[in-house]
Amino acid sequence: MFRRYLYLLLLTVNLIYPRTIADTVGWTFRDRQFLGPAVRYIYNDTLRGVHIVYKDDYGAIRYNFKPRGQNWRFSQPVIVNRYPRNLGSLDIDITNGKALIATEYLNRNQHLISFFTDQVAGAGTFRETEITTGPQFNLVAAARFGYPKFAAIQNDSLYYFSRWSARNLGPIGPFPFHNIVASKLSSRLGFVWTDRSTHKLFFRETPDGGGTWYGTRSLSDSAPGSCRFSLFGASLVYDSIQPHLVLDLYDGANRGRIQLWHYCQYQQPAWSFITEFNFEDTTKLGRHTAALDRPSIGITRQHTGSTENRLYVVWEQFDPDNIDPVTGIARSDIWACASTDNGRTWTNPVRLTQPDQTSKRFPIIAEIVNDTLHILYFADQQAGCWELGEGSLIRNPVIYLRVPTEIFNTGIAESPTPIRPLPNYPTILTRINRNQLLTQLPNGKLFDPMGRTFSIQQLPYLRPGIYYLKTQNFWQRILIINSSTR
């Protein structure tokens, strides 16, 4: 009887609470995958499968492909390049599904930018094509006809490049604080970058793949509130002609206070607030980080120019209560928010990973979201960046995380403030069902053992287990034993 009850209880939990799935898809010694914003390392081709790339060792780029409904094609991700190259970003030629990988390298003291093209979609056999000499920090994007276009830095300015033309987009400085995205349903290209000298954020578009250009927009000048400046740049995605940007902004001085915003110039208001996070002791933040940073954005497209696109934002956020004992640096977890109305309003932040002895760094969401968020991240086993002089050289796992979109529908959203485990105040365990709890909750607060609070609306979705109920100054330790109030 007990086994039958336990089986039904576990089945009920699985039915009411969506599960995330994490797979280790590779290993790397590189604990600084990119210095600037989150750039594409993963692409979800809904017709063919999922592509991933990442840096490994000095100058090695690894690639893998997961065909739809199948396992990863290579048990060990293949090396793309024969000679050392620095990875920029990934995109695909939507007409044939072939991966496009932007790279750069140094040859006889000259920077060269190039790109690799897979011979067949998902085959992992790449051919390199040189673009030009001089620029560095190369990124790639390809619109509906599949022609690759590039964004790279030359003489402290951001440039647009194609195989046959180039254009100076504006000053940026020597660091790769830029991003590029192409619409797969039109010929639009969007460029967003931070000018290192002013920390202002800029955005520019071309509607026809580089033939004509709209004017440069200073996003920092129109941003609401005191947080208007950018440390690392931003990320963006297109529906068809609408660009959706996600920006982590600060006040220009304090990297411990970050606001996350969505921007879409074709709707009013153009700006919408997502969340804010404060990390008071910034000495515990690693180099080239902020309290929360490097957001990336994905989309479930409804129709062209829709006001009902579903948007999903993923970022890394550092936990002041989870400090690496070796480096003294805060570890990071991955958080996310969702919008069902084209970015006008957003859910509360949801924590997708849990605190442990790893720091989950550089998460990137695939821009196309069907019923699942496809996320690539790196589980750093020692917080900090060895390449920046923090900690030791360690081989770390590369993680492919799948998150069902229904996780945002359960109402179980965690507070963006740091969680702190509750002390075990009561020792007596009271068994209670949800109908009984429903009568007590309006006069009290419900917590789980980690200190997260839950509202009465979230009650039907809570997992059975131990919780704490506080009414005035009286604490109860309770065991929720049934799965629904219905």
Question: Can you put this structure into words, describing what you see?
Answer:
- The structure is a single chain.
- The protein has helices at residues 2-16, 219-222, 434-440; strands spanning 21-28, 42-45, 49-56, 60-67, 78-79, 86-93, 98-107, 110-118, 126-133, 136-142, 148-154, 157-161, 166-171, 178-182, 189-195, 200-206, 217-218, 229-238, 243-250, 257-263, 271-278, 292-300, 310-323, 330-339, 350-351, 359-365, 372-380, 396-404, 429-432, 445-447, 453-454, 465-471, 474-480.
- The protein is globular and about 70 Å long.
- The protein folds into 2 domains: 2-13 and 420-480, no CATH class; 18-408, Methylamine Dehydrogenase, Chain H, CATH 2.130.10.
- It has a 5-stranded mixed β-sheet.
- By secondary structure, the protein is mainly beta.
Q: Keyphrases for this structure?
A:
486 residues, mainly beta, 2 domains, 3 helices, globular
* Anisotropy-based shape: globular
What fraction strand? over 45%
- How many angstroms does the end-to-end distance come to? 23 Å
Strand runs, count: 33
Runs in which pLDDT lies below 50 for 5 or more consecutive residues are 1-17, 411-427
Number of helices: 3
Structural class by SSE content: mainly beta
The CATH superfamily of the largest domain bears the name YVTN repeat-like/Quinoprotein amine dehydrogenase
Question: Whole-number radius of gyration?
Answer: 23 Å
CATH architecture identity of the largest domain: 7 Propeller
Mean pLDDT score, rounded? 87
At the fold tier of CATH, the topology name of the largest domain is Methylamine Dehydrogenase, Chain H
Kindly provide the name of the CATH class of the largest domain: Mainly Beta
Give the strand order, joined by hyphens, for the main sheet. 29-33-32-30-31
Largest sheet: 5 strands, mixed
